[in-house]
C-alpha cells in the first residue's frame, strides 16, 4: 500500500527540522513525514567533519526563532550546532517522523487527484508515498561530492589530497606541511584550526577574499540573558544582530570604499608588520559581491602573526611530487593538500519533478517569493539568504507555508499554484551572487523575476513584513477547490 501524509518534508537538516516544528505546532492533527537521504539528522552540520567546522553567522540568527540559542559561543562549532538541531528534533518528537536512508528520486503531481506521488529509494528498494503538500528542505548543494578543479599533475603528488566535504577521520596532520587551496569560508576556517598542530599551513589562493574578525562570544547577549532570561534576551539579541548585519550590508553596497577601508585597517592591526595586504587581502571585487568570511576572534590573523600560517596568492600551474608549482614559477611544499575549492550546487536535491505527466524544467520556472515555483502546485522550497543567516529565511518560509495552508483550510481549497501571466516581468538569476560555486551552476536553477512577488529578497526586515503579514491571496497565487 502507498502511505499518505498531509505534508511531506524532504531533508532533515537545519531547515527540515525547523519546517517540521512549524507544521507540527500549527497543525497537531495533520500527518507529516520527513524523508532524509542520509542516515543522520543535521544535514550540513553532520556531513562536514573537517577541523574547526563552525558557523559563519552568529547563532542568535542562525538558530531557530522558536528555540533560543543558549550556548556561550555565538560563532559556534559544528558539533554544538548539530547537538542543538538534534535536541530540537527530540524535544518536539520530530525525530520519530524521520525516515532515514530515503533518497527521493521523483515527485509527480496529479491535478485530477490534487496529490503528489513521491518515489524514493531505501536500501535499494523503491518506496512510494503520497502527500497533499510537498516541502523541500534539501539545501542547494550536492552532498555526494564537492567541486575540485582538474589540477594538472595531481596524480604525481606523493602526499595526501583531501576535500573538506569528505574528511578522513584518521587523517594525521600533526607536524606535517599542509597546503589549503582556496580562500572561502572553509579555507579561512581550516587554516587556523590546523595551524596549531601542523608544522605549517599555507593558504594558496587564486585571488583574495574579504575577511572580518568578529568576537566568538557576544558579551551583550550573555549579559542580557542574566537580566531578561533566555527567551527575551534571545529575541533582543537576534534583532540587534539582524539590524547590525543589515546596516553593514547596506553600507557595503552603497559606500564600498568606506567598508574596504574599515576591513583593511582592522586586518592591518592584527597582522605582522610588513604583511603584503595589497596582494593577499585586497580583493578585486566589492564587499558583499561575495560573502564575507568571518574569523572568530581573528583566529586566522593570529595564526599568521605567530608564524604558524601564511598566504600565497597566485595561479597553480601544476602539482609536483612534493607540492605545488605556481604560474610565477615559485613552489610550495606540502605533505597534505586540502582542496577547499568549493561546493557543487544541486537544485531540489536532484529529484525529478513532474506535473500532470510533464517534466518540470527548473530554468523555465520562476521562483514565487523565493520559495515556490511558477506552475507547480502545492510545493514549497527553502533557500536562505546569502547576506545573512540561512535560518532567518528558513523560519519565514515555514511561517508562510503555515499561513498558506491555514488559508486553504479556511476556504476549502485543495490546490495553490503560483502563476506568472505578466509578460512585463523579466527573468533574472535566482541568486545575484558572484561566488564561483554559484556562477558554475546557477543556470540549472529556477529564475527570479524583475519585481515582486517573483523576486528573491535578501532583506530580512522586508521579508518579515511580506511573508509574515502580507496577503496570501495576492493575485499571483491561484487557488482551486476541486
From TrEMBL:
Family assignment from sequence similarity: Belongs to the FAD-binding monooxygenase family.
Source species, domain of life: Bacteria
Protein name: NAD(P)/FAD-dependent oxidoreductase
Pfam family, one: FMO-like
Keywords: FAD, Flavoprotein, Monooxygenase, Oxidoreductase
PANTHER family: MONOOXYGENASE, PUTATIVE (AFU_ORTHOLOGUE AFUA_8G02570)-RELATED (PTHR43872:SF1)
Cofactor(s) demanded: FAD
Keyword Membrane in annotation: no
